[in-house]
Each structure stands twice: as C-alpha cells, then as structure tokens.
C-alpha cells in the first residue's frame, strides 16, 4: 500500500476507535477539479469498512461512507433564474453555483448525537443524465459513523463553507499540478459528454474548472493533511 494511503487509513481507524459511540468521525477531503479527491474518498471508505468487517465479522453494516458534494449543485432552473443566467450556466461548478447552506444543514444534522431513535439522514446525489441533483438519494444510516465528504470547496475560507469546515474532525487537501488536472479534466469532460470534443473540453477546463481551482487554492483554510495526487491502482481497490 502506498505510504500516504497507509498513513491516512491508519490515522482514520485510530481516530474512529477513539470517537464516542454516539458521534461520527467526519473528514472533509477537498481539492481542485481533477485532483482525485473522489477516488481517494471512495478508497478510504472501502479500506475502513474492510478493517471494521475483519474485527466485527457478525456486523454486516458498513461503518464508513464517501459523500460527494455534487448533489449540492444548484439546479439548472435555479441558475436560469439568476440575474445573468448565461454567465451562471457557463460558470456552473463555481462556489456560487452550489447550495452551501443546504450542505451546512446536513453537516449540522450529522453532528447531532446518535441515539436508539436516530434514523437515516439523506444527502442529494447528482444525475448526470439529466444534469441536476436528486434530493434525498443517498441514505446515511445511524450505523454509518465514518464519513468522508469530498468536494471542491470543503476547505474554502468563505461562508458557509468555513462554518461547515469548522464542524469537521479533520480537513484534508489533495494537491495536484494544474496542468495534470487540466489533462484529466479534458478526458473526463469528453467521456461524460460535458464537451463535444477535446477542444471544447480544454476551453471549459481553462475558463471554468481551473479558475475555480485558483480560488480553492488561494482561499484555502489550514488543513491537517495534504495528500499528493497520483494515479495509483491502490486507490481503485
């Protein structure tokens, strides 16, 4: 296992073991678009679940989950209702095109102590086919007590993101060279159908994604971990 991954897994497990039974361990993983934060969050949740299962073989419930911030995009209808809808739609993915207050509400709810009466909470997902969020699509059962949030703005020092960040146990940042991120984004946009070809994808990456990336880097809160972004097969197992 890569040393930085091993460190993060061991650190998370140790912190979970010292977390009160009525509380959740909440870690926010941020980074610029194309940094690899989604893959890292999913891999860490999988690793923690494997450790938990090995020590609790009779418990089938996953203890960890990765929660994407994609579901907090404003809808296309909301963007169209803005004073400059063309600009808002072109800049979709910028901090102002997310519902940060809605995300903060979920984080506050997840900080409520867990009791025998605690039910599942729900987060929105994002439907790439219709290009809009789906409310309440991701269930977070009370038994899920290690949460890896992942998103661009989770360590942004602007309201309401910094208020949500203050409720996390740790903030991690995935560091990547902007040119590496650009190449990843071009490929991603073409595959996802966001752009018709590499020329259009490159334009979007340079004029939107990496503009957002500069704000993410320039306005970053202090974080507990900086993770070097690499293409490592271990992140996918």
Describe this protein with a few key phrases:
five-stranded parallel beta sheet, single chain, globular, 7 strands, disordered C terminus, 8 helices
Quote the beta fraction: 15-25%
Number of domains: 1
Query: CATH-wise, what's the superfamily?
Result: P-loop containing nucleotide triphosphate hydrolases
Q: What average pLDDT do the residues reach?
A: 93
Summarize the structure.
This protein has 237 residues and is of the alpha/beta class.
Structure description:
The chain has 237 residues and is of the alpha/beta class. It has one domain (3-229): 3-Layer(aba) Sandwich (Rossmann fold), CATH 3.40.50.300. The chain is 41% helix and 18% strand. The protein is built from 8 helices and 7 strands, in the order αβαβαααβββαβααβ. It has helices spanning 3-17, 37-55, 76-80, 85-90, 100-110, 161-166, 178-192, 198-218; strands at 25-31, 64-68, 121-127, 132-140, 146-150, 170-175, 225-228. Strand 3 (121-127) and strand 4 (132-140) form a beta hairpin. Helix 7 crosses helix 8 (198-218). It is globular, with a radius of gyration of 18 Å. Mean pLDDT is 93; it is low at 232-237.
